[in-house]
Amino acid sequence: SQEENKTTFLKQPTITAQNHPSNHTTSPHYNQSRPVTIVVQLSGELGNQVHKIASGFCLQHMIETRLGLTTELKLQTQARPKWKRAMKWTKAMFPNIRPLHFREANTEEFQQIHKLQNQWINEKI
Q: pTM for the whole thing?
């Protein structure tokens, strides 16, 4: 289902001493020039949004600390207007979230990137 596809991006990667990028100077992440973008696809009410944003922050922390990569977190809202009320509540209750732009990843560019990533994943599976 579509919801299952959204959550697969937040699964924790397995990192061992052998495959850690810091142990290989030929790593594709060596001399990283652009940050890794983590897109959090929001849906639902306050609890769902807080959970997904927190999962995004956890993933961001893991990538930066375990892989040594620079990241950026971008939010993407659902098409229905339900997200607006939840955004207002989320920002009211969690001041650290206030600077986040809840529709930053709602662009044609991100839709195209997501489509290409899905094609690539489907070819590899």
A: 0.67
